[in-house]
């Protein structure tokens, strides 16, 4: 420990929308904590919400929850922060073997997908419609396809993410939605599937699409609220639709208890990740990383450290 620096660089928010690179002392270690030198940390849509002061954010804070680092020469993955060093309870540190640092930042979002699969519990032969082709959606689609679902359809805007969905073989059917006017295509989905789908996953974070998503569920089907929405967002569903069609509505949030299973899935190549993280930045370029997520030029971004 004597060879460690006394301070480190970290990205710190003083309040919503105001952040900077600061020098802070290394984290203090409690009993059973380990100190990790950070190699990479993913940037996701959640960080956009934290930037705005949403998503249970408390300031001041050092954000970042998709962290990869090294400890005693061994690879580790954990929930962490945008800083050169982080301290974590030993029980929340997980070894990886076959994944590079950048792709390994996907373990946390992949654990959300694994938790989603666990919540959905699809029946053998289920049909799935997923709205959106973002990182966690692409991984959840793969899991559903591998775990009992006979027909997985992804409906998402044309472009980078949809192209990657096809490259990853994430679904069986792909419906490219026009960015100018997707309504005719959405209506066509209903015409082509008059009885609806067993499972409908709303993974875009669009409250308008979420409100309509229930209309694609078959009787006895499941609607999965999987996207990240603004705190002020509201939906309105007719109780008679939920009651009469016996629709099951479930939410699926982040999950750390699925990390061991998730690490196994990614380490063994069961979930394809190549190309999901398509942009990397230095810590000083955090603003550019956020903007790449906001303007959708990045499918997934990551901060990398030397």
UniProtKB/TrEMBL annotation:
Gene3D superfamilies, sorted: Medium-chain alcohol dehydrogenases, catalytic domain, NAD(P)-binding Rossmann-like Domain
Keyword Oxidoreductase among record annotations: yes
The name this protein goes by in its record: Uncharacterized protein
PANTHER family: L-THREONINE 3-DEHYDROGENASE (PTHR43401:SF2)
Residues annotated as domain Alcohol dehydrogenase-like C-terminal: 135-265
Organismal lineage: Eukaryota, Fungi, Dikarya, Ascomycota, Pezizomycotina
Gene Ontology MF terms in the entry: oxidoreductase activity
Pfam families: ADH_N, ADH_zinc_N
Keywords: Oxidoreductase
Coiled-coil spans in chain: none
């Amino acid at each position: 420990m004597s060879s460690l620096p006394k301070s480190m660089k970290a990205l710190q928010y003083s309040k919503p929308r105001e952040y900077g690179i600061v020098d802070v002392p290394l984290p203090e270690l409690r009993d059973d904590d380990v100190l990790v030198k950070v190699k990479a940390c993913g940037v996701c849509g959640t960080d956009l919400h934290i930037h705005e002061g949403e998503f249970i954010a408390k300031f001041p804070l050092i954000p970042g929850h998709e962290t990869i680092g090294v400890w005693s020469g061994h690879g580790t993955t954990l929930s962490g922060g945008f800083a050169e060093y982080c301290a974590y309870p030993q029980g929340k540190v997980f070894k990886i073997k076959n994944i590079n640092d950048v792709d390994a930042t996907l373990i946390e979002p992949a654990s959300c997908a694994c938790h989603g699969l666990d919540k959905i519990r699809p029946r053998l032969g289920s049909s799935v419609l997923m709205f959106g082709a973002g990182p966690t959606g692409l991984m959840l689609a793969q899991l559903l396809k591998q775990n009992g679902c006979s027909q997985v359809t992804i409906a998402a805007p044309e472009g980078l993410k949809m192209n990657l969905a096809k490259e990853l073989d994430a679904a069986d059917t792909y419906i490219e939605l026009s960015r100018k006017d997707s309504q005719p295509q959405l209506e066509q989905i209903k015409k082509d599937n008059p009885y609806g789908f067993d499972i409908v996953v709303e993974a875009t974070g669009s409250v308008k699409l979420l409100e309509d998503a229930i209309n694609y569920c078959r009787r006895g089907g499941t609607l999965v609220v999987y996207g990240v929405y603004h705190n002020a967002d509201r939906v309105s569903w007719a109780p008679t639709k939920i009651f009469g069609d016996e629709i099951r509505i479930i939410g699926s949030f982040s999950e750390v208890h699925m990390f061991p299973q998730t690490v196994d899935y990614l380490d063994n190549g069961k979930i394809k990740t190549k190309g999901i993280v398509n942009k990397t930045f230095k810590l000083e370029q955090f603003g550019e990383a956020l903007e790449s997520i906001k303007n959708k030029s990045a499918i997934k971004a990551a901060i990398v450290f030397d």
